Amino acid sequence: MEVVKESKTVKRRSKGEQSRNNILDAAIVLLAEHGIKGTTHRAIANHSGLQLSLTTYYFKDINELIFHAFKRNSELTIEKAATAWQDAFQLLAKLEKDQPLSNSDKTDIQDHLTALAVDYIVHKVETQPTMLAVERLLFSLTNSTSHFTELAKFHRAALLKPFEQLCAAFNPATSEVDADIMFTVFTQLEYRNIGNSGDEIDKAEIHSRVHRIVEWVMKAL
Q1: What is the pLDDT of residue 98?
Q2: What is the pLDDT of residue 100?
Q3: Ordered DSSP codes for 180-204
Q4: Distance (Å, rounded) from C-alpha 221 to C-alpha 59?
Q5: Are 56 and 42 in contact (CB under 8 A)?
Q6: What average pLDDT does the segment 80-89 reach?
Q7: Per-residue pLDDT averaged across 111-135, rounded?
């Protein structure tokens, strides 16, 4: 069997891409902990364990580096969110049937959706606190510069899609508005609990607010 060896060019590219991502990942952590002012070339080099010269080799200046760190954080967040609502969509598939739902069915769906949403929020708070902190920082930079504004709009639009799909199952005519409100409430619950874990997370508060918003969105049934 012929063995295909990886070319030196491919190896260099892979190593370079890994170094670049390591720099961006270090910048993401620093952005979450110290904000933009605390995210410097030297701090990034120290955190990533890479030479200071590499941080300037891959990015022409600190502003470009910081922007790409926000962009990478956005890409990773969107990737994780893409499959988060699959269980909810499977549950809502029954709404596509012609037969009307009983009050008991509606209550079951509402309770199940609430449980899924609470698990989704708590899981993000516990496993993605750094990404959430950087996302919150990105949204705070809207209207500061055009490239941050565009990235924030793209990021929000991507995260809104599953909410719009979910809300459309109940009331297509108002799905965009409903999704925007639901997304805003869920996001604020996530941000409010950044840094908390285990019993520190107020799950009762999250449940009560999620249950109310799900109940409100399902009003059209």
Answers
A1: 57
A2: 72
A3: HHHHHHHHHHHHHTTT--GGGS-HH
A4: 52
A5: no
A6: 86
A7: 95
What digits encode the pLDDT tens for the residues 131-140? Answer: 999 999 999 9
Using the predicted structure, report yes or no on whether residue 85 has a pLDDT greater than 50: yes
Q: Tokens for 128?
A: 């993605």
Q: Which amino acid is at 48?
A: S
Orientation of helix 146-168 relative to helix 62-81, angle to 10°: 10
Taking the C-alpha atoms of residue 214 and residue 4, their distance in angstroms, rounded to an integer, is 54
Residue with tokens 């799905």: 175
Reported pTM: 0.86
What does residue 149 show for φ and ψ, rounded to 5 degrees?
Answer: -60, -45
Note the Cα 194 to chain centre separation in Å: 13
∠ CA 16-151-209, nearest 5°, is 115
Decide if pLDDT at 1 tops 80: no
CB-based contacts of 5, cutoff 8 Å, min separation 6: none
Q: Which residue has the tokens 């508005």?
A: 177
Q: Which residue has the tokens 């805003």?
A: 184
Tokens found for residue 79:
């990737």
